[in-house]
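Protein modeling request. Please complete all fields; requests missing the sequence field cannot be processed.
Requester role: graduate student
Desired output: 3D structure, token encoding
Chains: 1
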Amino acid sequence: QVQLVESGGGSVQAGGSLRLSCAASGYTYSSSCMGWFRQAPGKEREEVATIYSGGGRTYYAEFVEGRFTISQDNAKNTLYLQMNSLKPEDTAMYYCAAVGLWIGNRCVDFGYWGQGTQVTVSS
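Delivered output (123 residues):
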């Protein structure tokens, strides 16, 4: 059983910060990808940031680079997303994904997803 449980979402004003956490169980971080995705009502899911557990390589979507930082703690099997300088357009449900494949220097085909944590940014 692989389970992913997100936490840390909430409501903040523009310019504020949030730290999202994803607690994983049922496996250990090793030579695979984890990532954060988001989806706002009426919009398609967007990739926010991913990290390759085997090499510590990270990828950020263009619209979040410079504001967000993805990291993981292998000892605790926990993934994090530190979000600073939040904007109203960051409002969405944020999902944690795990067991992705590292292909072509990118993380793809994630096999497991969390239930999501809501992030709301007001102007």
